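Help! Submission page says 'invalid entity' but I think these are all valid:
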Amino acid sequence: MKREISDELLNAFADNELDGAEKAEVLECIAADAGLRAKVCETWHLKELVRSAHPLARQDGGRKKPSSWRLFGLPLAACLLLMVGAGSGWLAHERYDEAWIPGAELKSIQARSSGVLLHLVSGDAADIDKALRKAEQVAAARDVNGGIIQVELVANGPGIRMMQVDNAGLATRIAKMRERHKNLRLIACNETMNRLRERGVEVTLQPAVDVVPSAIEEIATRIDQGWRYLQV
Amino acid sequence: MTLELLKFIGRSRQFEQQIGESRPRLLRLARAWCRNPPLADDLVQEALAKGLKNHAQLRETDSLHAWLCGILAHCWHDHLRSHRVMEDVAEIDDAALVADGSPESECLQSEVVRRVRRAVAELPVPQREVVTLVDLEEFSYAEVAAILEVPIGTVMSRLSRARNALKEHLREYNGCSLAAPRLARVK
């Protein structure tokens, strides 16, 4: 029986909150329902709208100009630390580097997956870098039988920015990755391209990039084929 | 004694770095919540001061930012309670929505940015908090639930209502508007 997909569940999918089984179930429904696909795309675009409309202030993110906090707050921090002592273990805890797929997950991919689809919605430089690193990490790995793992990096919305020919630095990086890994495929969403064209924005993609009619349909197809889906 | 001092200096530097990374994100969040840059500055300063005072309660470095966001939420809620703030969307100052002191002038002048910020600003406070924590800070639903001290189901329903309202407000942009100017700029 077809499951009823609520707005809450669809949001959870768009936010990468669902586990493997539930995600696969939602994807199955999405694959069969154009209305659901449109809703997911709309949510991804909305997320990016909200994020892009609230950028981090450059002054706050940078380290050039000392703010009143840096002038007075940090010495205060040092004083407080001195008062409470140095016994807090969390200070020395290592940060998790989310630019890489964790070892356990990679092992699981090597053991079971037919392929891996990495999905990039964001056009943020840091997210693009994460997506490329993860793609290269999987593309360089071998499955348990020593075979290569097929990898697709699918971009839609502002994620398309990664695949534009105009970005020389990224184009060079991607071209080198493609030379090293023939099992890596980069894919752009034609729905996004069409929306941009409607707005008078012509986007020229790098030669190595393939175009599919819809990112969400590509995702649904690959999930059906037993691929692992990872959202960046 | 010397070794202890060296350890302390090392940890202080790490702490400084972590606070330095969190502060601009807290500021962005506070500005989205209260729509008042000077108040947002005050809330963040208050949250950081409380965080410094109580930092021994925190054990995991990875959760430092989430922990600080929780403190910021407390400060913000205290402010709402103590000032009995009655929000009137008609009184939202468009200039305040963009004049937040950041140098992102090309971005701030954008009509789309102004409209998106206004749409977020017009959301009821609980929905505004959830959507910004999920979409700006990219917290998981469980983390948002912990920060706001509400059940995950409440997070999901607030998020759903918030996104439906935003989609209604921003329907004319067809979801791709912010991408277009950026893409046009790099061509």
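Support: the input was valid. A stray whitespace character was the problem, and the output above is from the cleaned input. Chain A is about 50% helix and 10% strand.
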